[in-house]
Amino acid sequence: MNNDVWFRSLVWMDYRLAVLFTVFIPLILLIWAFVQKAEGIQRLLTIYWRVSSLLAITVYLLIGGFGVSFISSLMARILIPISLWFWIDLNDEIEYGSDGALKFVFTSWRWATSIYCILGALTTIPFIGCAFSEATLGTPYCKVWLEAPLLFKEYFHPNTSAGFLGFLGIIGLVFYILCLSYFVIFKLGKQGRTAAPQ
Fold first, then answer.
1. Most exposed among 54, 127, 138, 154, judged by the fewest C-beta atoms under 10 Å?
2. What is the pLDDT of residues 29-57, one digit of tens each?
3. Is residue 194 helix, strand or coil?
4. CA separation (Å) from 155 to 59, 136, 159, 177?
5. Kindly report the CA angle at 115 between 74 and 36, in degrees rounded to 5?
């Protein structure tokens, strides 16, 4: 590990917050929504998981040491808040169609995650240069962002090469871009800001 980067602890805190806000809490909320049969929350969380899969792709790109991971990280932090608030029909259904603890916890998580992602996007911008230069990517300033993903690899993929995992990340990124492009080009014009197909 590099020991000359003053913001290392902040980077690791960011990864811990990401696991909390973008994995654990929404997973619990999704299970809770299915148990409570809260369809609006279920549908919004399903959309959220599709969009936030870019974060998982980013982890594999970081494991592979690909600079594009810094761009995908920024895009994920922009797209997640959009996915949580974009849908007029789901916003209305959640706001007016349900009450109780689930709605309160879900709404609190939605606001907290949106704020976290916006702040995360702002703090990611200074590191975008890591995406465009191999020399810059090899500096401690950029490599500190690879430490947590490489630890993830040690725990969950100890016998798999970083290059192969990075290749899987590239495939995932291409598939993600194709799906997002299809939605924007073909479905958004028909559906508008409604989650229900027109």
1. 154
2. 999 999 999 999 999 999 999 999 999 99
3. coil
4. 13, 27, 10, 28
5. 110
CA 43 to CA 54: how far, in whole Å? 18
CA angle 161, 163, 166 (to 5 degrees): 115
Residue 84 CA: distances (Å) to CA of 8, 26, 80, 137: 30, 11, 6, 32
Question: DSSP class of residue 130?
Answer: G
Query: For residue 24, what are its two tokens?
Result: 């654990």
- pTM for the whole structure: 0.93
Residue 1 CA: distances (Å) to CA of 8, 93, 130, 150, 169? 10, 48, 18, 11, 23
